[in-house]
């Protein structure tokens, strides 16, 4: 995040959250707010300011792509344990963007047809077009996370997937898509509280699934699977970012900042007219 | 619209805008505000209040569908001449809804593959799932609008389509989808002004297409095609609504009101727990 948006970001957000060599998930405090010096009220103010900036950049990105002046696009990949706040990010960060420029895909348990194909098949079909902000709510990483933890595929197939993912993402990046991979990181205690709330409130029952506790019981195995995924797939082309998410306000602000960083790097411009403006003005006047 | 949302709606919005027997598009003033007694500032206040109500209803609809307690869903079909404000409706009305509950499709000029199939083929594939608010930005009606005006298909094929559309929409409605068909109606003068603005501002060039003037020159033929479409396809199951759209604030408010009406009619409820709440609380506590 540049100072243009807020003085409360003490450093480059992407750098503060990026998974580099030697990163240990176990050492990251899920209640911390890396790179951000402000508190909740600053965060909310900065989030509101970011909405306006995001809106401007997104419209320019979309506009530029319509004239075929660019192949640039963005893909936000969201992964997390249950209740970590993916839904809140989509609602409050992605939801602030014009829906005409967003392509959201929620990947569920694979269908029979999807299982009959390579694990990337259903994902490739949902890669965003140029000019769009694509959002994956869960993704191909499920196939090396729950896939690994629950041995849903042979070990050698899981191994193969890390390389296949890197090749796939490299191809996207080479074609002009900024790939922003985010894991929302909550603590096991925080998850317990959040799942408990879903069981306490009848208007939250629908968000609860008994399977959530089954997965929760495998917490250490999931953390290990994430750690391995980071080591194998946090590439230069498409690095991972781990966003501490015990504080919802911070997680939203951080993901918005990552989106803003990517868009500012693209630096989209209003495209030139692809027609003769004066001639068109005359044609219009004559109608 | 019920009084629950605003005193400024003097009557049932849906009824005020519905295309009934004897409706003449040519007689409707595109600057009027049918059913609404307030001015722009009231309209903006009511729109903001509607956002909150829409949010609540949408979440309940989505929640109920997740438990398979309902097959209800909504499909908003938007048709209009260029620059009438479809984009603004999607951005400001649809965009206020949680994107996780919205399925937006912008139908463009048909591809070769789409043309090789029946005109409803591409549309059927984009029918919203239960629990979703589907939005069609242009739709199967293009095939009896530009299709008719520009003779893109033989006359007898165009004729056949009206009946095929009615059958298709009846099927959707019988399956639980509320179909809200909206034409945003601007005057020819208003369009001229709006297209002119796109030619005056470099940050709007990308929204302009020389083809817009070609279509504009066929204005009377389009109005006739709309009139015929209304007469042939404004059915009891899926009536048309014509929303005067010279005043953007009114058009947005009216479309929001039509969505609210449909959702209030569905009256979605938080679903019962599909699991034993107490047993799950114990399981969670034990983790």
UniProtKB/TrEMBL annotation, chains A, B:
Signal peptide: none annotated. The keyword Lyase does not apply. SUPFAM superfamilies: P-loop containing nucleoside triphosphate hydrolases. It comes from the Bacteria. Keywords: Kinase, Transferase. It holds the Pfam family PPK2. The keyword Kinase applies. Residues 41-267 form the Polyphosphate kinase-2-related domain. GO terms for molecular function: polyphosphate kinase activity. GO terms for biological process: polyphosphate metabolic process. InterPro entries: P-loop_NTPase (IPR027417), Polyphosphate_phosphotransfera (IPR016898), PPK2-rel_1 (IPR022300), PPK2-related (IPR022488). Coiled coil: none annotated. This is Polyphosphate kinase-2-related domain-containing protein. It comes from Microbacterium lemovicicum.
């Amino acid at each position: 995040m540049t100072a243009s948006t807020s003085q409360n970001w003490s450093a480059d957000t992407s750098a503060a959250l990026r998974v580099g060599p030697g990163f240990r998930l176990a050492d990251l405090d899920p209640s911390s707010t890396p790179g951000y010096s402000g508190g909740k009220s600053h965060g909310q103010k900065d989030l509101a300011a970011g909405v306006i900036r995001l809106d401007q950049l997104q419209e320019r990105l979309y506009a530029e792509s319509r004239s075929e002046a660019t192949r640039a696009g963005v893909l936000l990949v969201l992964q997390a344990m249950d209740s970590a706040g993916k839904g809140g990010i989509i609602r409050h960060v992605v939801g602030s963007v014009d829906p005409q420029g967003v392509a959201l895909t929620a990947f569920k348990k694979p269908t029979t047809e999807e299982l009959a194909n390579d694990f990337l098949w259903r994902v490739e079909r949902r890669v965003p077009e140029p000019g769009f902000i694509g959002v994956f709510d869960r993704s191909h990483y499920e196939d090396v996370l729950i896939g690994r933890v629950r041995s849903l595929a042979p070990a050698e197939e899981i191994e193969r997937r890390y390389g296949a993912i890197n090749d796939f993402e490299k191809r996207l990046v080479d074609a002009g898509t900024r790939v922003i991979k985010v894991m929302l990181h909550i603590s096991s205690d925080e998850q317990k509280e959040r799942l408990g709330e879903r069981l306490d409130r009848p208007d939250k029952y629908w968000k609860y699934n008994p399977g959530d506790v089954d997965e929760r019981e495998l917490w250490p195995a999931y953390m290990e699977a994430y750690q391995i995924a980071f080591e194998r797939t946090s590439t230069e082309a498409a690095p991972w970012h781990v966003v501490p998410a015990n504080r919802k306000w911070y997680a939203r602000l951080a993901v918005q900042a990552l989106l803003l960083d990517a868009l500012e790097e693209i630096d989209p411009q209003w495209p030139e007219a692809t027609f003769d403006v004066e001639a068109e003005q005359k044609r219009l006047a004559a109608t």
